[in-house]
């Protein structure tokens, strides 16, 4: 008989009753099939390894596109609202920025006593203009299936009923950002972008889609930007920060310059907002 370690079986002689040759041939055929199967599996494995990242990135790309279209829908909602109300943004917060800081403190105390009433949320103002619940959820947001938490968070500087006409560069000012999955963000409808950035940046998803996130700007455009791109100077000569709106500060907080106020705020709360 042939050695099982040899590569080829010996030439078969089909003698009458030579069963062992047939068994050997069957083993050879089975072995060949196994090798074929392994080759096929290896090819499938290689193809899957090559295709899977492409499939994952295609899925993420689709989600990102859907997120952009959600934000565009919100942008259209704001535009229609502004048309109906002569350019005025909805009043999400009562009072001014400075009063609001004070009110929020009081509301927090009332909340602890169980007397807190929910304010009108920014997206409720957009409901009559075609913005539905589905437009508030990003599928790349790990909480995007939570019907109670919107994937987008409002730039609080727009929430005091200002007129859009006083904005110098609406195409450079962010109205909505993507919400972070930090649980501290769940109790916030908006972020106070007039405060130092390190006091609210944990509320923003900085890398929701790859290394960037989507932002809705005040002119209705949607940008996919890195967090760093949205950061800039807040000086009088160069208002390049996309979250802070110096023009609103100048008009709505008369009598105290932003720099003066900021200095006072940092004296009171420390440079990182910790009292
Ligand atoms: Zn998104």
Strand content: 5-15%
What small molecules accompany the polymer chains?
zinc ion
Task: Give the termini distance in whole angstroms.
Answer: 90 Å
Number of helices: 5
Number of strands: 5
State the shape: elongated
Q: Quote the average pLDDT.
A: 84
Order of helices and strands: HHEEEEEHHH
The profile of the biggest β sheet is: 5 strands, mixed
Return Rg in Å: 31 Å
Contiguous low-pLDDT stretches (5 residues minimum) are: 108-118
Which structural class do you get from the secondary structure elements? alpha+beta
Structure in words:
This protein has one domain. Strand 4 (213-217) and strand 5 form a beta hairpin. The longest helix has 66 residues, at 19-84. It is elongated and about 110 Å long. The protein has 275 residues and is an alpha+beta fold. Mean pLDDT is 84; it is low at 108-118. Helices cover 38% and strands 7% of the residues. It contains 5 helices and 5 strands. It has a 5-stranded mixed beta sheet. It starts with 18 loop residues before the first helix and ends in a 6-residue tail after the last helix. The site of zinc ion (ZN) has 7 residues, from loops.
């Amino acid at each position: 008989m042939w050695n099982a370690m040899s590569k080829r079986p010996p030439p078969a002689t089909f003698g009458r009753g030579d069963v062992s040759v047939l068994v050997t041939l069957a083993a050879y055929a089975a072995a060949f099939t196994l090798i074929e199967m392994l080759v096929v599996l290896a090819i499938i494995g290689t193809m899957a390894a090559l295709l899977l990242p492409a499939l994952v990135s295609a899925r993420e790309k689709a989600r990102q596109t859907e997120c952009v279209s959600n934000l565009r829908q919100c942008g259209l909602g704001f535009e229609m609202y502004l048309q109906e109300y002569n350019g005025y943004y909805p009043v999400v917060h009562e009072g001014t920025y400075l009063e609001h800081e004070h009110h929020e403190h009081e509301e927090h105390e009332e909340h602890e006593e169980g007397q807190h009433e929910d304010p009108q949320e920014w997206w409720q103002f957009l409901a009559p203009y075609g913005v539905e619940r589905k437009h508030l959820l990003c599928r790349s947001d790990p909480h995007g299936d939570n019907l109670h938490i919107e994937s987008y968070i409002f730039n609080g500087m727009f929430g005091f009923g200002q007129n859009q006409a006083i904005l110098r560069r609406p195409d450079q000012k962010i109205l909505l950002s993507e919400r972070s999955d930090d649980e501290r963000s769940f109790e916030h409808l908006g972020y106070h972008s007039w405060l130092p950035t390190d006091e609210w940046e944990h509320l923003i998803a900085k890398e929701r889609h790859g290394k960037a996130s989507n932002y809705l700007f005040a002119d209705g455009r949607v940008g996919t930007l890195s967090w760093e791109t949205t950061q800039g100077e807040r000086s009088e000569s160069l208002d390049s920060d996309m979250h802070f709106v110096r023009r609103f500060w100048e008009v709505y907080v008369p009598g105290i310059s932003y720099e003066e106020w900021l200095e006072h705020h940092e004296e009171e709360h420390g440079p990182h907002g910790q009292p």
